[in-house]
Amino acid sequence: MNEDFNILLSKLSRFKRKYYFNKMLRGLIIGSLLIVGLFIVLDVFEYFFWTNTVVRAISFYLFVVFTLVVIASLVIKPLFKIFKLGETISMEEAAIIIGGHFPEVSDKLLNAIQLQSLIEDMDSNSVGLISAGIEQKTLELKPFPFRKAISFKTNIKYLKWLISPALLILITLIISPAFITDPAYRIVNHKTSFSKPLPYKFKLLNDSLRVVQGDDFVVKVAVEGDEMPEQVYINEGKYDFRMFAAPNSELEYRFTKLKSDIYFNILSEEVKSETYHLQVLPRPAISNFKIQLSYPRYIGGKPEVIENTGDLILPEGTKAHWYFYTKNSKRLYLINDNRTEKLESDNNLFEKSLVLKKDFDYKVVSESKDNIFSDTLSYGISVLKDKKPQIEITDAQQEFLLNYLLVSGSISDDYGFSRLLFKYRKNNGGRWVETEIPIDKNVEKQGFNHSFNTSDIKLIAGEAFEYYYEVWDNDAVNGFKSAKTAIMKYQMPSRDELNKSVDSTSNKMKDKYESSLSDFENISKEIEKLKETLFEKKNADWNDRKKIKDLLRQEKELRESMSDLQELNAKRDEIKEFLNDSPNPELQEKLQKLDEQIEKLQDTDILKKLEELSKNIDELSKDQLDKLLDNMKENQEEFMDKLEQQLEFFKQIELEQKLSKTADDLDKLAKKQDRLREKTADKKTDTEDIENDQKSLNDEFKGIQEELKKADSLNKSMSKPMDIDLQEEQQEEIGEQMEKAASNIASGKRNKSGKNQTSAAQKMKDLSEGLQMMLKQAMQQRAGEDAEQLGNLLDNLLDISFDLESLMARISETSDNDPQFNENSKNLRFLKEDYAVLHDSLQALSKRQIFIRQFVVKESNKIGNYINKSIMSVQERQIPQTTANMQYAMTSANNLALMLNESLDQMKQSMNLPGSKSGSAKCQQPGSGDSPGIQQMIKMQKSIGKGLKQSGKQKGEGENGSKGENGDAKKLAEMAAQQSELRRQMQELMDQIEGQGGNGKALQKIINEMEKQENDIVNKRISSETLERQKEIETRLLKAEKALLKREKDKKRESKEGKNMKRGNPKANFKYKMAETDNKNNIINRRPLKLQESYKKISDKYLYDLKSSEELKNK
After folding, report:
1. Where are the domains of the chain?
2. pLDDT of res. 447
3. Distance (Å, whole) CA 432 – CA 467
4. Is there a common fold for 195-281 and 285-384?
5. Nearest Cα residue to 11 out of 128, 151, 176, 150
6. Record: fold of 195-281
7. How far apart are CA 200 and CA 221, in angstroms?
8. pTM
């Protein structure tokens, strides 16, 4: 029974499995139906409504959850129960299901199962009946197939519902798959925004959405569809930008200079595209570079760094090291001559070194890791080969400095020089001599000035030498290179050319003197006219002031033009120096004095004063302008006197030089004629050569004759021509002899020609000696006459000074009501006339004697002015003013006397006259009488005066004669002793005169003044009063000398110029006895000086030395 029941239970278990399998199959069909249905609902909804991402996300997750729930509940759950996983239906529930399917079974199966469960709870006694019941039922149920109670066909109805939506989906996929797939795709990709399909859509045409940083990117879009939107925009973040139409129905928008990534959409009113990502790639760039340059050592250039400049010009051999600083670069390419060198770096720095030997053109480009290239940089380096140096002569002259070759030039080289040489040779084909010229070897282009003293090679007139310059560069690598100038020639002018240049320069100087005098004369006339115009006016107008300014300007320009005289004179002296025309010492002294006077013509102080006056003209009154014109005229007359004096003196010097040179030329020509005579006597010498030489000598003599004619013309142009005889007859004889000599040679008569040559040579020597002697005598005669006249003028000046002193005393003692007053006034006018004659004579003499300085004439003018003022004062009966002016006139007369005496001494020294008659002079010299004692005293007193002036300059003195510091003690002691000795000698002279019955009171005043002078020196009171007293002593000594001469011979002297002024000129025959030298030991004892002990020792030493020198003279 149990076995049968177990079979029954087995059949029930199979039933349950089939039950759940059927349930799983039905769940699968129903679940599929539900899932497909939901899919269709969601798909259709999305298809029509194009929901946003949120709705689509809900739909997606709803579908997923719903599907999982349906599958879990309708499929997986029955599946688990098939395998008895989880709770399944009970046997009773299975029996009921089977009973419901098989009516025959009904409750039998359920009862059997229930009974079986009762047996398990009952005891064994009760089991039998129940087991029989169970067995019975089992047997009854055994034939029934319980599995058939479950029919799979019941699921067909559900399958029909599934087939309809499935077919719908399948048909839709075949006909319009997008209806199914697009919504499903959008739901699945719910995070992505999708545009609702319209009649058009946007298609991005760009192949790549990548752009290099800094570039522009053009977004290109095509619209596909049947319609076109009115406006299409591109959205970048917050902003929309309108896209513009392009060819082929495309739309474009340009993003400019992009720096970072961009996200954008294409949109219109209906459509919005997906979001696109435009990627901006970093651009590689060469941000900076530098080149470190190391130059070749011989160039001397310091290493330097060039930044951001690749185009360079560099010397050959320069080492260049490049540093390229880049951005976003992985590689750098250096391209040269189709050869590419790749450099790699991880830090954006690339380096390259190269020694430059030739021109180097290169390109540089960098590359990023994204294979993007930077802009290409192109540069070129020009390599300079070391060139040859260059040299150029810009100027070579010898016009003014005949002893020098002055050359200016320039040299240039690319890197500098090693040396500059001057090479010369005196004889063609001779050896070149070289000297190095200092230059700055590091300056590439420079000028040079070179002077060469031709006297170093003893170049004389008419000779020449060749020269050139050579410069060497400093190219130590390739070897020193040089450049030369062309060979140049320095031609020294011949003596004839130089002499002509001297004559031309002299003529220019004379013309300049004469034109200047003429111009000053014209200005003087204009001043006179202007003074007359001003005299007739009450006030000066603008036109008058303008004329004065013009006159001042003209005078200033004339004075400035005196520099031309200096230049001409310098040129003349240089040529003469080169010709070795060394004048004799006397003539040389005259030339020096002339040079000094010419230099003084250009007075800068006067030029400044004229400039200031011109500026202040408008501020001056009429009276001041009139006074200014007077001063201008006075200054011009003084300047004209200087010019006239210099012109006359220049003519004298030129005449002396011309005659001296002509005499020398004659002597040289005579020697040439002697040498030619010897050649003529030699029969081996070619006759034609002798004839040519003789003709050449004849031409030279004709040139000498021309020079003599010029000398004669020059002499006649002087204000007082010299007495010279050019011996024209002798010249003619020489010329005839020389012509005969040439004629006889041509005729083959050598003997006669030799005699003619001998005669001509001797006559030329005689003429040369005669000219020299004649010139010497003429000069001595001129000097003697001028010295005599100057002595006469000095005597007459002293007479006038005495007359002034006497007349001044009478006027001061005479009342203006006294009849004698008119007589005194008349005598003063006579004195004026006498002085006018003296002044004219002095002025005329000064024009031909350079020893008479211009300030002498100026002082003479002062005397005349003061005498004129005295006459005006005496006419107005202003006695004090008259005597004051006369006193001024006397002071000027005393000063002038000292000046004339100094000039006379200089003339005597130049004549080498000892103070007595000159052996060659035609007249006796004044001031050389028999009174050598007083002349010696005058010289000693002048020596003391010079010492006093020097002491005053060293220590200074007050404005009103205040005491000044004395000089050195020794000099003061010597001067004190000298003054004491002079005072003693003057005392003895006065005693001697009185002993001979004469009047020595005039000398007493000199003695008194000397005593005051001595006291001032001893007491160190060297003041302006001391210096004035010195002048007074010198003047009185001159008057004393004249008095002594008068005492010997009283006759009136006579002036040789100007109205025969009748004043005596006695011979200086007065002599006085010198004190014995033994008495000199007692000088200090008789008049002891109050000296300090140190000064007294110096004084004693001086007196001892003086005594010793006198004793030597007496021996």
Report:
1. 2-175, 195-281, 285-384, 391-492, 496-658, 665-719+726-781, 929-956+965-1115
2. 93
3. 8
4. yes
5. 150
6. Immunoglobulin-like (2.60.40)
7. 12
8. 0.49
